[in-house]
Amino acid sequence: MAEYSDAAADMRAALRQNPETRDTIRYATLAANSHNTQPWRFAVRGRGIDIEPDLTRQLPAVDPDNHHLFASLGCAVENLAIASRMRRRPGALTFDPGRGGIVTFGFGGGASAEPTLFDAIPKRQSTRGLFDGKPVSVVDLVTLAKAAAMPGVDLVLISDRPRMNRIRDLVVAGNTEQIADVAFMRELKSWLRFSPRYALKTGDGLFSAASGNPPLPQWLGPSMFDLVFKAGSENDKYARHIASSAGIAVFVAERDDPEHWVLAGRACQRFALAATALGLKHAFLNQPVDVTSLRPELAALVDMPGRRPDIVMRFGYGAQMPFSARRPVEAVMA
């Protein structure tokens, strides 16, 4: 674990004052993404950087239409834009559906630097553990909403217990259905990393220690996982996690297409960075999004019937956990 922690810290080393483009891309890869698959490739072309979906890292069981893949792409491109602007290379993001959903960060123009969000990039993590239940102030909730404001995406912040409990019930229902799905479980297990050495070797996946579970030899982990990973215990854990949270954020794009999935990811990343800057933790609760039959109830719950919810995230105050690994920049360059 000491070796792993040192390597994770190196992956999150501060960006130099005049970084090379490859180092700015390193900051982009620190973004949130589904199953830590890191489904992106970067290509420096002329006066810009193309961010391409890496379809070799699809999740067909949990994400058959690549919704989460494109949302993950949105998280990465937002990191890239924030980091580049902070290092005096401003630019703007454009989406090209004709080229397979490539997002381009073109240098020149664009928004101003955002030092608060930039400083949060290497500190942000998805914290799959208990929070302390402390409420978030109205001032901070406004700060979160302003940071996440994105044309084409609506954000609903829920902090009242009755609605949080209704979302809990949807999470539990979705989790139960997913655990009963053989294909889902096979896919999930393929992305689990039990050993810190193996997590460093692959540079991706869901490392057990990052979820508060003990590290294990990689050969032993899958067998232990089969013994302890059951719907009942996992549902109880999610119920405790939600009960300990200050609130839940639901992101809903105006349209259900890859361009708007990217926008939802961008809004989500900005929310996560603003939360990190405020000393808040966050974690994803996407079961009501993943399970198609549950989406209408979630949409109705946030007063957006007929629309597809994109991302569900709980937030609150909690302790830091080990960071997840990232692949080297060389592995994500096209």
Give an account of the 3D structure.
The chain has 334 residues and is α+β, with helices and mostly antiparallel strands. The chain has one domain (2-164, 242-332): NADH Oxidase. The chain contains 13 helices and ten strands. The strands form three sheets. It has a four-stranded antiparallel sheet with strand order 1-2-4-3, covered by helices on one side. A four-stranded antiparallel sheet has the order 5-8-10-9, sandwiched between helices. It is globular, with a radius of gyration of 19 Å. The mean pLDDT is 97.
Can you describe this structure in just a few lines?
The protein has 334 residues and is α+β, with helices and mostly antiparallel strands.
Mean pLDDT across residues: 97
Low-confidence spans: none
CATH class, named Alpha Beta
- Provide the β-strand percentage band: 15-25%
Task: List SSEs in N-to-C order.
Answer: HHEEHEEHHEHHEHEHHEHEHHE
Shape by Cα distribution: globular
Q: Which superfamily, in CATH terms, is the homologous superfamily?
A: NADH Oxidase
Q: From the 3D coordinates, which CATH architecture would you assign?
A: 3-Layer(aba) Sandwich
Reported for the largest beta sheet, the result is:
4 strands, antiparallel
Q: How is the largest sheet built, in terms of strand order?
A: 1-2-4-3
Rounded radius of gyration (Å) = 19 Å
CATH topology: NADH Oxidase
Count helical runs: 13
Q: What portion of residues is helical?
A: 40-55%
